[in-house]
Amino acid sequence: MKGKNKRNTLKPIMKKSMLVALGLGIALPVAGSLPQVQAGAIGPSLEISRPVLNEGISWLNVSSEQSNGQPIMPSVPIVVEQSNLITIDLSSHFPSGQFSSISAKSSNYDIASVDVSVDHSTYKLVVVPFASGIVNIELTAQYNASQEPNSQSETITDNIELYISKKGDFNNDGYVDSADAVELFNYLRNIQFGRSISFVDMNKADIDRNGVPDKTNDMSAFMQGYIGGTLGAKDSSYVLTFKQKRDEPQAFNAVIKGQNYYQETISSDVQVLDVDSGYNMHLSYQWFNSTSPTGDDMQEIIGATDSSYNIQIGDIEKYLILKVTPIVGPYESEIKPFFIITKTPVPKLT
User: Fold this and answer.
1) Cα dihedral across residues 284, 56, 131, 105: positive or negative
2) Is 317 in contact with 342 (CB distance < 8 Å)?
3) CATH class assigned to 250-341
4) 66 SS3 class
5) Cα(49)–Cα(83) distance, rounded to whole angstroms?
6) What is the pLDDT of residue 4?
7) b/e per residue, 14-23, with b = 16+ CB within 10 A?
């Protein structure tokens, strides 16, 4: 019919045979259909559905809930307050001895607002969700890279994402309907076969909110809530998942010090900060020389793998370059390296 909004019509018939195939054991007449229920916008009655999960943020608990009565490691909890507010203590992520002036910014304040509260030098991230969607949360702090008097602080940033979806709206199209049932079933079946999953999807698939996606229980919970009208517009529950967004490590004091002459020793005390990693970091070094100030033709200097280097005869009239590679984690994972180059080439002998 012209002029009608097709989205307001009923979805195609979901027959009894289909429900049996899904293993739900819920009987509907063969000619019956599942009416479409609009997910609806979050209003003043917003409720954050627990658990709130975390995917890949190393310093934060993986869940807002406890496991077997014990805190989930690490020790920074996701605290759900007043059913529509989340707070996260930033003290361990940004220790007060090194960081100051911590702030937060949301990429879309219509989806979620973020702020940082301060109480007796304790910084807390405050998150208030408003609507379905994805927002980037940018945390900014001043980092004291040097302990020298009157040294200038450096600005560092850490980005994390927040995924918000209406409970039952598995495909995020703004409706709770038969399309969600089919996609949810396929996803839960894939979990049974051990296929890779994300915490974002796993959290959405946990319809009964017991923390464990399960084909039988969660499909049953979906259908019961759907047919009973407790999902969709009549339900104010929303599912939230935080996720790490990769930030490149930042280098401080990235200069080469010393006299750039034959047989002199040059060095660098560069500091590298990786705000995403919860592991200790160490640095590997490799020196190069190049005839170009941009290092286009740089050649590795065999055996020069310390933070300092004694200039050799083969370095004359060449620029010297230090490659610094951060290495983190129990598996010695290498992060994107930094290159530091001398401002001038080594001069000729006189």
Assistant:
1) negative
2) no
3) mainly beta
4) coil
5) 8
6) 41
7) bbeebbeebe
255-294 core/surface letters (b: 16 or more CB in 10 A; e: else): ebeeebeeeeebebebbbbbbbbeeeeebebbbbbbeeee
Contacts of 331 (CB under 8 A, 6+ apart): none
Question: Could you identify the residue written with the tokens 């027959």?
Answer: 15
Q: What share of the chain is helix, strand, coil (3-state, %, to 5)?
A: 15, 35, 50
Based on its alpha-carbon atoms, the radius of gyration of the chain, rounded to whole angstroms, reads 28
For 169-195, the DSSP string reads -TT-SSEESHHHHHHHHHHHHHHHTT-
Picking from 348, 349, 343, the residue whose alpha carbon sits closest to that of residue 321 is 343
**Range scoring the smallest mean pLDDT among 27-41, 114-128, 315-329:** 27-41
In angstroms, the CA 252 to CA 121 distance is 25
Please give the structure tokens belonging to residue 335. 């992060």
Backbone angles phi, psi at 94, to 5 degrees: -125, 80
Residue 38, pLDDT above cutoff 80 = no
Helix (H, G, I), strand (E, B) or coil at 288: strand
How many angstroms separate the CA atoms of 238 and 167, rounded? Answer: 5
Q: Residue 60 is which amino acid?
A: L
Q: Which residue has the higher pLDDT, 95 or 71?
A: 95
Which range is most confident: 60-74, 158-172, 183-197?
A: 158-172
Report which secondary-structure segment, H or E, holds 265.
strand 265-267
Structure token digits, residue 256: 């080469």
For residue range 133-175, what is the model confidence (pLDDT) as tens digits? Answer: 999 999 999 988 766 666 678 899 999 999 999 999 999 988 8
- Structure token pair of residue 207: 């319809």
Which pairs from 305-309 meet CB under 8 Å and 24+ separation?
307/267, 307/268, 307/269, 307/283, 308/258, 308/265, 308/266, 308/267, 309/265, 309/266, 309/267
Query: CA 34 from chain center: how many Å?
Result: 36
Structural domain spans, the chain: 37-245, 250-341
